[in-house]
Every structure is written in C-alpha cells, then in structure tokens.
Amino acid sequence: MKVCFLIQEHPFLDARIFQKEAKSLLRQGYEVTMIVPKIKGYLFDISGKKFINSFNSDIFTYEGIKVITYEKFYPQRNLKNLNYNIQSGTYHRFDDPLTKIGIAQEADIYHAHEFFSLYSGIGIKRALKATKAKDIKLIYDSHELDPDPNTTNKKITKTMIDMLQCMLKEVNYLITVSESIKVWYQKIAPNLPIEIIYNSPPLSSSLPLKQRKHETFSAVYEGIIHQTKGNFNKIIEITELCNKEIDFRFRIIGGTKETERDKLLIPSHLKDKIEILGWVDYTKLPFTFSDIDLGWIDLEAKYSLNHRFAMPNKFFSYLNNGVPVLVNRCDDMKKFIEYHQCGYVINKMQASSKDYANAIIFLSRNKSKLKEMSINARKIMEDLYNWGEMERRLFKIYNNFKS
User: Is 70 left (phi over 0), alpha (psi -120 to 50) or beta?
Assistant: First the structure.
C-alpha cells in the first residue's frame, strides 16, 4: 500500500514523522512518500538551519523514503477562504501546492501532521473521490492541541473549530499524543476512532554507565530554547541559586533557532557551570545523558491549554535514559509522573527559578529517592512506552485499512 505523509510546517527529518513513523511503516512494507516544505528554496533542519549543500533536488529518496518538496505557504493568512472551501464539500478551490502534489500521488493512505496539512488532506480526499473514484483513507496525526483556545484569538479559534468539526467528519482515524488531547477531540468528534501514540524514542539497547563526579549534581534541558519553554534566563537563575548550596551543572542539548544563537550568552561566572551542546544527532542522544541526574521541563501551563496537556519528546527522552523528570504542574505529565513515580512535580502552573532550585537541592540530598525514580523511569520505558510499543499501535491503525 502507498502511504503519503502531508507536512506543512515540520522539518522533514522531524523525529516523530521521519525517524519513527515513516521508518516504521517502511520496515513494515509500505511504500512511503513525504511531501515537505522548503523555505526560500531550501529544506530546513530541526534547528531551523537550511540545508544549503544537501537535499537540493525537488524530488529525492532518502533512507528508502521518497521526498517531494514544495515552497512553504501560509494558509492561516486566508482562514476565511479556507473555511469556505471546507464547508463547501467540494475540492475545486483547493489550489495550494500541498493539495496539488498530494492528488498526483494517488496514494492509498494520506497521513496529515498539522491542522493545515489536514486541510490539504481533505482537498485530496475529495478530489480523488470525484475524479478517480478512489476512496482514500485519511489519518490526522495531531502532535498538539490546535487551535489552543487559551492562546489563539477568539475569532480565529471559532473559525478553526468550525473547520475542524467539518474536517473530522472526513477523517478515518485520529492520532494524538496525550490523554487530555484525546478527550478534547472526543468532545468534538465522539464517533471518530482515536489512538494515543506517545512521543517515545526507540529503546536504547543498553544505557551508558553513569559517569559523574561524586559531588556534582547535573540537570539537562533538551530542545528549543524559548520564552515559554526552556527559558534561558531561568536556566541561569536556577544554576546560580543551586550553586549557593551544591556543586551543580546545567547542560543544554539543542538551543535556539539558527538565527538566534547570539541570544544564549552565558555569564562569565557560570562558564564552567552551563554547557550548551547544541543539536545532537538523534541516534547519539543517549550518550549525552550519561552523567545527568535530572531532566528539566518548564511549560507555560497557566496560559496554554496545549502546554497543560503536553507530553513532549524530551519527556520520554529523559525517561528512556533513566533520567527522572522535573516539571511544573502540567496535567498529563503530572498524572504520569505521580502514577509511575519517575520524577518530581512542582505543584504550580507557573514555577519560579527558586521553586526549581529548591527541588533540585532537595533531590540532590535524597539520592536514594532519586535512584528509585531513575530505575522506575527506565523500567516503564522498557515495559510500556518505548517506540516498539507505540509502533504496534501505529501498525494496528494501518491494518484497519487493508482490504
């Protein structure tokens, strides 16, 4: 069967899309094509850096997966027209490049990864039904809550919800990333089959031996540095506060977008306390955790429903490597951590640097508790939440479409 991934926003090497889902389906025997955006003629990496000297062809095959590119467009600027097109029930006004290229593939299954690539998926489904009498299957893989009613303009939210209600009637299966997001969708489309596929990494075959200085306590942040997640000022403040009490180090794996590197300026007195590794190859991530005690996540849960419901890649990346998680009060991560005893939750939607520092100091002085959390973290990934388990859920969805 031919599968076509529709991507409007993500980089084509995105961990969930390419490294996990696409490769898993390829190994299972599916023919996988990805339609992905370029920005000003170039594909871009997860850091936002453009691939200037590679992946320059409009169409190419990479690691067995066919990749077709197009110039990124911004459909949100024409939301009223998009809503009209969705409500019309026809395909005639779907003129964006993602829809046009998608129609030409004549795939059996289309797998959309964002709200606006779902829009294109609807146009493709209608067009192939009308012109080819081909009844394709459409999956919506909602990586996050979109629209987020707490952060999106109310008028825009209403229009997008109207679109979503109509689009979901033509979706065959919905995938999402947390229990709360699943419940949110069930209220909109109670009869639509929904599966949770967590952002879990493949289980590393063996953990590197922990190699740390006896008295040093280390925390890590993995991902993009942003004001609402991975706030750099908080990292500096946490590091300063902790070092008043303990020997503490903070490691950053990832960082800012390529154009914002100069924003990460480490104060001179913390040069030996904060380390920025930058973006690390997906397969080499486990080795960056070999001397880490705690993984940090800080999300804007008070003002973002999406953040309250989030179960991000970094959460499972930490657990996969036996690193307990420290997080503020985000609904789904809180329930998960409390149930599995694999981390520490600060019971505030908005936690301060002092809150995090106090928690780190407490855990550094309770090593037996921390070790128990670490063992639990690795165990649940081995038994329940590794990508192998998520892969089985993915295959079960796709097996429903085999005639």
Answer: beta
Pick from 9, 13, 15: nearest CA to 72: 9
**Opening angle at CA 298, ends 296 and 300, nearest 5:** 170
Nearest to 362 by CA among 294, 307, 306: 294
- 5 bridge partner residues: 34, 111
Q: How far apart are CA 161 and CA 47, in angstroms?
A: 30
- Indicate yes or no: pTM above 0.85: yes
pLDDT(207) > 80: no
Which structural domains are found in the chain, ordered by start? 2-198+387-399 (3.40.50.2000), 216-385 (3.40.50.2000)
In this predicted model, what pLDDT tens digit does every residue of 363-385 receive, in sequence order? 999 999 999 999 999 999 999 99
Measured between alpha carbons, how far is 340 from 128 in angstroms, rounded to an integer?
A: 46
